[in-house]
Each structure stands twice: as structure tokens, then as C-alpha cells.
Specification:
Blueprint (H helix, E strand, L loop, with lengths): L9 E5 L6 H12 L2 E4 H9 L3 H24 L5 E4 L8 H10 L1 E6 L2 H8 L13 H19 L2 E4 L5 H11 L3
Helix pairs in contact: 1-7, 2-3, 5-6
Length: 175
């Protein structure tokens, strides 16, 4: 742990499934001595149910409402590093909230990397029982422009570890 002070009140990590947002977020929070939150994990903790169950009962729209409430609540925490769910950017209010409340980092991962990194994960409702390559490709078509729209920094993740990425984010933070 270092004595680095986070000059941004919050750092949001956005990007697709499998980009490493939670892993990089934990490493970054450790370096900055900041709190770390994974918005999906916070939703599960507060709902008392896992995300697949929420999707099954409330649908994606119900999940997105919960997600926005959690992100709004987490914006009261400072300093904090917040790993968002891959679809957090689809809600305009979330994009505005992130852009006005902190520094946003887009962790970029190719569809090929996403497929490789999520192949054993059965807890992703948007991928359940579907062709991962096709679903992830379609999601990237709609979400990547939104990741780019909100990002203060874009970092490719392929072939890089969490510590390297955390260091690069720290170097890019506004003074």
C-alpha cells in the first residue's frame, strides 16, 4: 500500500464482461487506500438475491433500476473505486452520474478475450444458454460507443495484469 491520495473523488471502471473491472478495481483501491465496490456484488448484497434470480424475477429493466440506485448510493462514498456491471452504461442516467461524479476508465477487452474469460462463468444471465460469441459481439456493438462516450481514459486489457493497469490508471488521474 502506498501513500498515494486519490485526486478523483471516485473512479468508475466500465467495460464489457470479462474485462477485469473487479480485479483491476481491487488492485487500484489497494494502491490508493480507497474503498472498493463492485456494483453487481452490492446489488446482490442489498437485494439478498443473486443477479440471475433478479433477472429472472424482475427482468433486465428491474435489474437496471436496482443498478442505478446502487450507483447513486455509491456516489456518496469518497474516495472509492467502483467496478460497474458491463451494462451500467446503457442507462443514460448512469452515464451522466459517472461522468459528473468521478473519473471513468474504460477497460477494453476484445470479444475473443471476453469469450475466453467468461467461458466457465455460469452466473451471467445475458449469456445463459446462448452462443457467447454472438451475444458478446452484439453487446459490444451497442455498448462500446457508450463506454467510449463516458470514458476519461481507455485502457486495452489484453496481455496485461491488474497491477500494470492500476498503475497506468494512477498515472492518468487528474492532479
Amino acid at each position: 500500500m502506498t501513500d498515494v491520495v486519490n485526486p478523483a473523488p471516485r473512479i468508475f471502471l466500465v467495460g464489457p464482461m470479462g474485462a477485469g473491472k473487479s480485479t483491476v478495481g481491487r488492485a487500484l483501491a489497494g494502491e490508493l487506500a480507497a474503498s472498493f465496490y463492485d456494483s453487481d456484488r452490492e446489488i446482490e448484497l442489498r437485494a439478498g438475491a443473486d443477479i440471475p434470480w433478479i433477472f429472472e424475477i424482475e427482468g433486465e429493466s428491474g435489474f437496471r433500476e436496482r443498478e442505478h440506485r446502487i450507483l447513486s448510493s455509491l456516489c456518496e462514498e469518497a474516495p472509492a473505486v467502483i467496478a460497474t456491471g458491463g451494462g451500467a452504461v446503457v442507462t443514460e442516467a448512469n452515464r451522466v452520474l459517472m461522468a459528473t461524479s468521478g473519473f471513468v476508465v474504460y477497460l477494453e477487452a476484445t470479444v475473443k478475450e471476453q469469450v475466453r474469460r467468461t467461458k466457465k462463468d455460469e452466473k451471467r444471465p445475458l449469456l445463459a444458454g446462448k452462443n457467447r460469441q454472438e451475444v458478446l459481439s452484439e453487446l459490444m456493438k451497442t455498448r462500446e460507443p457508450l463506454y467510449l462516450e463516458v470514458a476519461d481514459l481507455v485502457l486495452p486489457t489484453a496481455g496485461r495484469n491488474a497491477r500494470e493497469l492500476a498503475q497506468e490508471i494512477m498515472e492518468a488521474l487528474p492532479a
